């Protein structure tokens, strides 16, 4: 803490220490998250649905009050209007009117938020909507709707963009267009924090990613660092029935380091030669084993492994 208070924070766009949000009667949504986002970087905040991404981002822009911990946005620990004016966000999607055009919607929003209408054309051009700006919102594709929300976030010439799931629901070409847009924002000097429930979808666009699981930040690094740190452990994919019981049996074998339950079987962290003894143990216990193979992992697989529950977590 003292360190953060005495050091200049010019290099950081977002800085949180032990940030926590607990909703009454619920599990902790954001649990002791300490992270920083450097100025000029694209930071991916990745976690499964319900991991706590939106709640974290809402606290960054003053939409939710932290239960404990501290935060700094653009060097300020007070989220004044002056600070928030420099932050563009798509956390709360603007309620666009379907019967109005894209341009009319942005004009209304600019008036409502006190922003200059001069930025509208530039924003529409940036998100590649200039050609459809005078068409009604209801005629837009999902990708165009997401891009209009981004245009709204860009209008105030924000230094920092906080984008909640900007690629959600887009088809591959829409996603690629959104990724290009995000990179362009970073190239023009903005800082971008974006969230996603798919690491593979945003990996290419991010300088660093933070992985959040059950409200906790469980890994931070470049995607290369995360892949080599978490992807290097040998593991076996077991397709079987009676998954909870099979997990307990697998965990008892000496060469097995860890067992995670998956939709149609187990992910067992063990050397390849554990496959024989593991199959025998499962079969002897009456479990039907339909397949067992060494795990070849993509970056997305590594992420899913990191965010699947261990047997201990499921029993907790
Ligand atoms: N206002 C609220 N009141 C009570 N619980 C909440 C509230 N907002 C979020 N939660 C809970 O906090 C947890 C984290 O939710 P959050 O929306 O932050 O996750 P997320 O990672 O953004 O997921 P998603 O991608 O599904 O939005 C969830 O268990 C959710 O049910």
Explain what this protein looks like in three dimensions.
The chain is an alpha/beta fold. 35% of the residues lie in helices and 25% in strands. It contains 13 helices and 13 strands. Helix 7 (172-187) links the parallel strand 6 and strand 7 (191-196). Helix 5 packs across helix 6 (142-154) and helix 9 crosses helix 12 (299-306). The chain is elongated, with a radius of gyration of 23 Å. Residues 23, 26, 29, 47, 49-55, 197 line the site of adenosine-5'-triphosphate.
- Return residue spans where pLDDT drops below 50 for at least 5 consecutive residues: 1-9
- Percent helix among the residues? 25-40%
Write down the overall geometry: elongated
Quick one: how many beta strands?
13
Protein name: ABC-2 type transport system ATP-binding protein
GO molecular function: ATP binding; ATP hydrolysis activity
Domain ABC transporter: 14-239
Family: Belongs to the ABC transporter superfamily.
